[in-house]
Amino acid sequence: MSYARNRRKKIRFKVDFEFGKAELCEDDYNTEINRYIEINKQTGITLVHGAFNYECEECGKNWKMWLELGVEGENKVMPCPFIIRCKCGGNAVHTNWQEDIYLPHEMPLGENMSYFKLDKRRLKSHDENACGIPVLR
Ligand SMILES: [Zn+2]
């Protein structure tokens, strides 16, 4: 197991403490995501681990799209789309890749933060085309 993964495990353990659910984590990332989904269901807290920037080709609006745990990143179980539909109806594309955000540890999603939601239904049915669902706020 790499140092980075070990470090993430410690952090994940801390997050679990916050939820009052201190348990040993399994090695399998799929199990970790399943545990996260269970915690998310029980607490209603959505965790994000980073963000990508999207820019609308129509109105020019910038969208900072946060990534729910499991969408892209180290625990990736599904990707997120390269192009999303802006509120104006135009296409917003992933841009300024150098400004992608990678958080040192997960944090709870704020209520005004746009994000890619884990498609839990398609993940459960092992759909290979499962992809993060854009939620614009
Ligand atoms: Zn737009």
Could you please describe the fold and organization of this structure?
- The chain is α+β, with helices and mostly antiparallel strands.
- It folds into two domains: 42 residues, no CATH class; 89 residues, no CATH class.
- 26% of the residues lie in helices and 28% in strands.
- It has three helices and seven strands; from the N terminus they run ααββββββαβ.
- Strands 1, 2, 3, 4, 5, 6 and 7 form a seven-stranded mixed sheet that branches.
- The N terminus is likely disordered.
List the ligand species. zinc ion
Helix and strand sequence:
HHEEEEEEHE
Query: Number of DSSP helices?
Result: 3
Radius of gyration: 15 Å
Q: State the end-to-end CA separation.
A: 38 Å
Number of domains as seen in the coordinates: 2
Provide the residue-averaged pLDDT: 83
Spans of at least 5 consecutive residues whose pLDDT stays below 50 are 1-29
How much strand content do the residues show? 25-35%
Major sheet summary line: 7 strands, mixed
The assigned structural class equals alpha+beta
Query: What percentage of residues falls in helices of 4 or more residues?
Result: 25-40%
Shape: globular
Please count the beta strands (DSSP E, at least 2 residues each).
Answer: 7
